[in-house]
Write a structure and sequence with these properties.
The complex is a heterodimer of chains A (224) and B (243). Helix content of chain A is 82%, strand content 0%. Chain A is built from 9 helices and no strands. In chain A, α2 packs across α5, α3 crosses α5 and α7 packs antiparallel against α9. Chain A is flat and about 70 Å long. With 243 residues, chain B is an alpha/beta fold. Chain B contains 9 helices and 10 strands. In chain B, the strands form 2 sheets. Chain B has a 6-stranded mixed beta sheet with strand order 6-7-8-3-9-10, sandwiched between helices. In chain B, strands 2-1-4-5 form a 4-stranded antiparallel beta sheet, with helices on one face. In chain B, β1 and β2 form a beta hairpin. Chains A and B meet through α6, α7 and α9 of A and β6 and α3 of B. The complex binds adenosine-5'-diphosphate and magnesium ion (MG). The site of adenosine-5'-diphosphate (ADP) has 9 residues of chain B, from α1.
Chain lengths: 224, 243
């Protein structure tokens, strides 16, 4: 076994940390967009909106039924050949788009389950007060569904952060891409990749702490 | 004024409401009694379309609806003429006691927040829960939750308050405070249709008692005659059991 080149690793830390903001930005944008799209799809499915419900089911089935890597290649390398206006799309945008659609499909199902998990009495109470469907959703059902879905959604955010590493296959120099480049230069693959693994790990662990605090706060709001 | 003609509701081939006719004057307080499973809840729930009746004409205040060709907007207009008190309280779990009462004023009646909150606090004081304004339902006793439920219905100032077994889910220790509050609402001449198993209470507050059985109104009359001199054998049998 060869000894680890600790000096090299220490020197690499600041180099790789510079890419953390890009990773977090890509993940955050994808998360917000996916949340919005997933909420819309969940409502369409719960309300059984004609036509849209069927389309949504096909969408969800496709994006859950195919690998994210295949979807990313399809968006970045494939679609521009068919739709020329997509040629201008850069790797970051394509990665965010692919990750958004992929995770929106999963999140739509969790949000749908959470909406259906809100007690029937809450729907009836909202109706009895005279709310429209939109008012009922916005004021009563979705806030309670959010509480139910929150832990699962944070888990998806963790998955999204890790999935941004796939952007490197679209030529994006994000955290993983940077590590790959450094390793190719120094041939110290183990040092570079264990370091990038540790950075992802620390980010996800930090998020888990936030998740626990969030759950404690949401729990308190109901039980006070 | 409330007027119901030929109200019919079926679940599959189970006819739960069998052509109900019913008129209620403004300010009248009507209590429904009868064995369980006879359609009392379904009647209340059909009047505000929580359950969609199959047939019948319903007039509540200025709104008239024909169940056979009702549009969503009409359903909503009719519902907004009513308020509802649920057996299991059904307070909004994501809102404080004050917001439970203010919510309808804000979203449905379009009041400014400040005005709605002030009104909600007034109502909380009336129902003896001023100090619970910021409490969530989960932190309230059953009796307190039901009082907030009644407060929410009071805030609507509806043409008719529909009340379904308001004390049936309560521990015995909370029943009195809820009945006392409802008595005050009744004394204020809020038009109401209340399903209850509390016979003494029905006798105290109601102008008229309806006895329902098998999806029909079998017999009705003022409490004095209904409780002392019922005509129909089914009413007699029922009252013998519960009195
Ligand atoms: N959502 C429903 N689906 C099917 N059957 C129902 C439903 N709601 C009520 N019923 C049936 O209708 C009948 C009357 O119920 P309900 O109105 O709750 O009676 P009550 O309030 O007088 O006890 C019962 O036989 C009950 O099983
Ligand atoms: Mg009932």
């Amino acid at each position: 076994m060869r000894p680890l080149d600790l000096d090299y690793m220490l020197g690499l830390v600041p180099v790789l940390l510079k890419y953390v903001p890009l990773t977090l930005a890509m993940a955050s944008v994808a998360m917000v967009l996916a949340l919005m799209l997933a909420s819309l799809m969940a409502i369409v499915r719960v309300m059984r909106v004609p036509l849209l419900d069927g389309l949504t089911q096909v969408f969800i089935s496709f994006f859950r039924g195919t690998p994210l890597l295949v979807q990313l290649f399809l968006f970045y390398y494939g679609l521009p050949q068919v739709f020329s206006f997509l040629t201008a799309i850069n790797g970051v945008t394509a990665a965010i788009m692919g990750i958004t659609l992929h995770f929106a499909a999963y999140m739509a199902e969790s949000i749908r389950a959470a909406i259906l998990g809100v007690d029937r009495s809450q729907w009836e109470a909202a109706r009895s007060v005279g709310m429209t469907t939109a008012q009922m959703m916005r004021r009563i059902i979705l806030p309670q569904a959010a509480r139910i879905a929150a832990p699962t959604l944070v888990n998806y955010f963790v998955d999204i952060i890790k999935s941004t590493s796939l952007a490197f296959t679209l030529g994006v120099t994000e955290l993983m891409g940077a590590a790959q480049k450094e390793a190719a230069g120094s041939f110290l693959y183990f040092e570079a990749f264990i370091l990038v693994a540790i950075i992802y790990w620390v980010i996800v662990e930090a998020l888990t702490v936030v998740q626990r605090q969030l759950e404690a706060r949401l729990g308190k709001a109901v039980a006070r | 004024m409330i007027s119901v003609r030929g109200l019919t509701k079926r679940f599959g081939d189970n006819t739960v409401l069998d052509g109900i006719d019913l008129d209620i004057r403004s300010g009248e307080r009507v209590a429904i009694i009868g064995p369980s499973g006879t359609g009392k809840s379904t009647l209340l729930r059909s009047l505000n379309f929580l359950e969609k009746p199959d047939e019948g004409m319903i007039t509540i205040g200025p709104v008239t609806v024909d169940a056979r060709r009702v549009r969503a907007a009409e359903e909503l207009a009719l519902r907004r003429q009513t308020s509802f008190v649920f057996q299991n309280y059904a307070l909004f779990a994501n809102m404080t006691a004050r917001d439970n009462i203010a919510e309808g004023l804000i979203t449905v009646r379009g009041w400014e927040k400040a005005r709605a909150h002030a009104r909600a606090e007034e109502i909380l004081a009336t129902i003896g829960l001023a100090d619970k304004a910021q409490s969530y339902p989960a932190a309230l006793s059953g009796g307190q939750q039901q009082r907030v439920g009644i407060g929410r219905a009071m805030a609507a100032e509806a043409e008719i308050m529909l009340i379904d077994e308001p004390t049936s889910a309560l521990d015995p220790e909370w029943v009195d405070e809820v009945l006392q509050l409802l008595k005050r609402v009744a004394d204020a001449r809020q038009t109401m249709l209340i399903v209850t198993h509390e016979m003494q209470f029905a006798r105290d507050i109601a102008d008229r008692i309806l006895f329902m059985d098998g999806g029909k109104i079998v017999e009705q009359g003022p409490p004095e005659t209904m409780f002392t001199d019922p005509k129909d054998p089914r009413t007699r049998a029922f009252l013998r059991k519960v009195l």
